[in-house]
């Protein structure tokens, strides 16, 4: 694929074995690309050896459905058993809450804090602090109304999975 000029994502389970092979192969086939490609690495085991990226970059979102897609992808990858439980209240609720947080971070101060670490930090606040902030925005109040009703009734929604 490299010699045909394609972009690639490579999951390197035994980093850096496959990454080094791919990088050297790329260097040998630079002539296949009209624009010189760049090679990036995201190393979850050692972030110091990683390039930085923001999977919830506000520039990539135009409406709340984009935030939902990001939240959906994140949450289902964190808890694979939810794939069979899609539509279930205890699966959809945390996804909706994370989507609302992502969208809030996008619209708050022009997305200055719209990063994954900020979303996780915000999500770890008590619900009594989260919901009043989110529901102060009309577009999020409607989106969160089923969850907010439960929150006001002193119920707790578990975003940690079941």
From TrEMBL:
It is found in: Cell membrane. It is a multi-pass membrane protein. It comes from the Bacteria. Keywords: Cell membrane, Membrane, Transmembrane, Transmembrane helix. InterPro entries: T4SS-coupling_protein. Its main location: membrane. GO terms for cellular component: plasma membrane. This is Uncharacterized protein. It comes from Prevotella multiformis DSM 16608.
């Amino acid at each position: 694929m490299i010699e045909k000029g394609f972009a690639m994502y490579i999951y390197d389970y035994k980093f850096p074995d496959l990454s080094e092979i791919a990088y050297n192969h790329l260097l040998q086939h630079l002539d296949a690309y009209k624009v010189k490609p760049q090679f990036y690495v995201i190393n979850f085991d050692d972030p110091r050896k990683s390039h930085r990226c923001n999977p919830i970059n506000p520039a990539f979102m135009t409406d709340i459905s984009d935030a939902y897609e990001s939240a959906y992808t994140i949450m289902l990858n964190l808890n694979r058993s939810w794939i069979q439980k899609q539509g279930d209240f205890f699966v959809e609720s945390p996804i909706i809450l994370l989507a609302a947080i992502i969208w809030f971070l996008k619209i708050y101060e022009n997305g200055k804090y719209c990063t994954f670490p900020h979303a996780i930090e915000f999500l770890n606040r008590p619900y009594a602090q989260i919901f009043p902030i989110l529901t102060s925005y009309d577009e999020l109040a409607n989106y969160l109304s089923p969850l907010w009703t439960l929150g006001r009734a002193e119920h707790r929604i578990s975003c940690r999975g079941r």
